[in-house]
Amino acid sequence: MVDLENVPTLDLLGEIKRRYLCLSKPEKRVVFLGAPGSGKGTQSTILRRDYCLCHLSTGDMLRDAVAAGTDLGKKAKEAMDAGKLVSDDIVVGLIEEKLKAPECKRGFILDGFPRNTAQADKLRTTLDKNKMLLDAVVNFEVPDELLVKRVCGRRVHPASGRTYHVDFAPPKRPGVDDVTGEPLIQRKDDNEETLRKRLETFHSQTVPLVSYYQKQGILHSINAAENPNVVTQEMYKVVDPSAQAPPSS
What we know:
ATP binding; two-stranded antiparallel ribbon; P-loop_NTPase; alpha/beta; Adenylat_kinase_CS; Rossmann fold; globular
């Protein structure tokens, strides 16, 4: 538990204000679809804070469950240690557990799941069981060539997770973190060959998934190649059309 005595007063008041403002906003349950580098992570962070939602990333959930040693975490670890894919049933089980957590009371953003129509069917069954409906599925569209440029130019400070880009958001000094002065790294998977393979898989799976949610009338595609602020505006038009203006963080 966090010792609130050590939290600066202004930070504490700011957090209280943020949560209070969330009470006037509708609950939201959304899925974000998009290729690596499409900006889903950036936009989900903004939406999560403005609406007090939980961000459900399958990778984070698996890591947390394995670290906590839960029953599902043990099953996931067994599969991963054997070099196998974690089954959809385990992933959906983790999602269902999270849906009952206090931080997910006002809704969620699902990022990275579902990846195909079979997973979408399992998700729908789970939501039906918990008397929940998806409000929207946001499809972040970006041309492949721009995705390659975005991903391959990404640089990371390993200790903090701060992310830079050699063209779009460079550090003050090339190759080093602005705060610590420590070297930045390029993640092993942030190369063109790996990304092209991931994009091929993404496109083959996502085309039927887009059609799946179109038939339900909840799919909204937005041009995520625009400036991030413009993408944020478009995202809010989809997620909460009743909002008079994009909420501020």
